[in-house]
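**Protein of interest**
===
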Amino acid sequence: MLIPVVAAAALMNAAMVAASAVSAILITDALGPALAGLPNTAGVLGTAAGAMAVGRWTARLGRAQALRTGYGVGVAGGASTVLTAVGAPIALLFVGMFLLGVGNAASLLSRYAAADAAPPSQRSRAMSTVIWASTLGAAGGPFLMAPSQSFASGFGLPAIAGPFLLALAAVFSALVASTYIRRTKSTEAPQVRRVSGGRSVLLAGGVMVVGQLVMVSVMTAVPVHTHLHHDGLGLLGVMLSVHTLGMFALSPLTGWCIDRFGPRVVTLAGLAGLLAAAVLVTRTGLVFTPALFLLGYAWNLCYLGGSAQLGSAELESRVESSIWTVSALATATSPWLFTLGGFPVLSVISVILAVPLLVLVLRRGERIVVAQ
């Protein structure tokens, strides 16, 4: 059960990272840097809509079939982005990114497929294992962007089509891998488990949302930053890979910490990490790339710490959809804010978002327990 879930999630992560970065560059050249976040906004909105759709498909079809359907929609999205790169109207890029977002939602929610098959006491570790194992695709994908340009050029296609072809191949492979995901009792007949502490669950969702907002606002600006400084896809690939390693590589440690210390401690550490990373990215020297790693791991702590407090497919899909709906605002506005004041402006906004939640989590001293 775990291997196909992991393989599909890793491949989808690689597809999304490649398509997101290059679509921002394509729009920067075509429409200007202030609008570079629009394709990724479409991807975020697709992820939000896809989270709700995958939740409904899970209730009707079971978890395994729901994930396969999501990845299938993602394949259509990958094909649309390739068509745009070879001369189709630019509007098709937004459609493609939206559909890729649906596939991305399937990848994100697939961590619960692993949790379904795990004993109740090991749900956090099962989810973290899927996220950790996704590192290969998410971190390795960016390193293939530059070679994919040469591949596309060798066939007489525009060089920028290469990363989109890479994304299409990756999401199609994710669909193939998902056909090996087996159904479990919880996916055949999803059960809604009661969660203790409604306010705590709401706060957990808030932590997940803010972690996503801060990460997305900074990382959407990174391709624009490197492109305007003529750094090339090679350096951008390194930065994205370091960041995605932070997002996924230490997930087993996060899962262990959740089981050992509880989600409250983990979410506190995540919020503190967000604040530190937001300050460090304003120093665009040697500390910049390590700051992107810290940003990724702070997101991981917030995301898994919050996920551990959700107890039903309905809650999972609603929270996931809320995260991506709200973060669409960050994706759309980040390049514009970046053109106004660079990373310092994004840093101030991140601090304003994270500090109030940090105070609220500190005030809620009790450990949250999910009823099984």
In short: The chain has 16 helices and no strands. The longest helix spans residues 313-363.
